[in-house]
């Protein structure tokens, strides 16, 4: 388990999959990430190359978000495939990202953490840049969604950059 000031971040259990799908399906979330099926999330829970994490508020144990991580052990890559917070603009996203970055480099000894973000996710972009992540480039019209072809901006941070900022 990863502990932050306000949250416990732990590997999701099968009985929490429906909660994750509800988070993914929220109107304020669904435009920014893929909605997984029950079976996909169950496979992620059981796959050693994935971490399906659930974020719970320490005070009352309510779920405030989740993340899906893909681990590339050979190249020491920590990819944040999805991250969603239910209580926007309360600092949970920053707190979760800081904890995930710290965990990737200090606990898992990864070399690179990266993610992609859609250009209209302005709060996400501001967060990632504020955390010192590097904008690597844009995958133009890389994803076809209901709202059309979407670009994906790639952000990353390397282990050496993380420790230099620490």
Helix content: 25-40%
Taken in chain order, the helices and strands follow as: EEHHEEEHEHEEH
* Poorly predicted runs of 5 or more residues: none
The H-level CATH homologous superfamily, spelled out, is Gcn5-related N-acetyltransferase (GNAT)
Provide a descriptive summary of the structure in words.
It is a single chain. With 166 residues, this protein is an alpha+beta fold. It has one domain (2-165): Aminopeptidase, CATH 3.40.630.30. 30% of the residues lie in helices and 38% in strands. It is built from five helices and eight strands, in the order ββααβββαβαββα. Strand 7 (134-145) and strand 8 form a beta hairpin. The longest helix is centred in the middle third of the chain and has 16 residues, at 92-107.
Keywords:
5 helices; 166 residues; Aminopeptidase; alpha+beta; 38% strand; single chain
